[in-house]
Fold this sequence. Notes:
Number of strands: 11
Number of domains: 1
Shape: globular
Number of helices: 5
Largest sheet: 9 strands, mixed
Mean pLDDT: 95
CATH architecture: 3-Layer(aba) Sandwich
Distance between the termini: 24 Å
CATH class: Alpha Beta
Strand content: 25-35%
Strand order of the largest sheet: 3-4-2-1-5-6-7-11-8
CATH topology: Stationary-phase Survival Protein Sure Homolog, Chain: A
CATH superfamily: Survival protein SurE-like phosphatase/nucleotidase
Oligomer: single chain
Helix content: 10-25%
Amino acid sequence: MLLLINDDGIHAPGMAALERAVAEWGPYVVVAPQEHLSGCGHQTTTHRPMRATALAPNRHMLEGLPADCARLGLTLLAPQTEWVLSGINEGGNLGADVYSSGTVAAAREAALLGRPAIAVSHYVRRGIPIDWERAARWTGQVVRTLMARPREAGIYWSVNLPHLPPNEGLEVPPLVDCRLDGNPLPVSYRHEEAGYVYAGNYHLRQRDAGADVDVCFSGRISLVRLAVR
Length: 229
């Protein structure tokens, strides 16, 4: 049994792509937020009730956060889960992003609760739409590869798909095991009447050779092994 989660909301195209990626592997349960929560980090809800609406059998929309989806899914809605898959996020979660990403937080929470997990994100280049069918195909290969490896307690994966032009990527790009890039995101702000607005350029971020930002930006799929213990 697989548990599927995201942070873009249950109706996001990335969730539909993730479902297509794993449809042939047997049963799965979706527990996903009712709204777009990108960048929410590893917040959890403990101070108010969370309504879970069953949209279909094994498909639940939660009035909560991605880490809540992992908690509720693994403890109540799908306790027989063997693997947790989070994504496919519309936007990269590279390097420092893993600390603010709701997509990665869901996978981290799953690892804390004793399940192996994979967070999949899709880097976005300006002016090029995401080919979700291609992303589903790539993700299927990624998940197949990582699930074939020995299970390790407390381990989860942050995977980032590159954004290639429409006429490229007919084959699955190389899967590269690499480390998390330790450079900070570009930090700059512009002042507007309402206050300061973040204006860092994600695409011009500093990158170390061989780390996940460099791997993904160069057109390959980055696989970063992370641990909670």
